[in-house]
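Journal club side-thread
Mid-discussion, someone asked how the predicted structure for our own chain would compare to the paper's figures. Pasting it here so we can look after the session.
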Amino acid sequence: MTAIVTSTGGLGTNCDHVRSGNSFMRDALLDNHGLGQACFPNDTVVTGLASCVFSVMGIMARGLELDLEKSTAEVIKHMETDSRRISRIDVTFNMPKKNSDKHRIILEHTARTCPVHLSLHPDIIRNITFQWDL
């Protein structure tokens, strides 16, 4: 089992990751009858993309003996108003400048092969960009 998701009443849930024991709350958007008191379900999808990219880049970086510590990702979610689905995800990775051009190319390619990226519906536009200036 991956997770146990428990209704907290209303539109909120508590999400428990079974293996790690970590949990987080989530709620519906204010404009969708929620209270906006926690992360929204579609926010977990878009942040999951950035998190997954960091995981696969981290695996590659370890093999290349690179340090990605303090790198960040800024994530912007775009929704279609009529269908209430994610239409576009913009992720900007702020990465260490000390990496060589060769390593930058490898990491950028690796980013586009993460399992979440490959699992998203093809109609969702994924703009993944890198700023190499940390």
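Post-session note: Residues 41-64 form the longest helix (24 residues).
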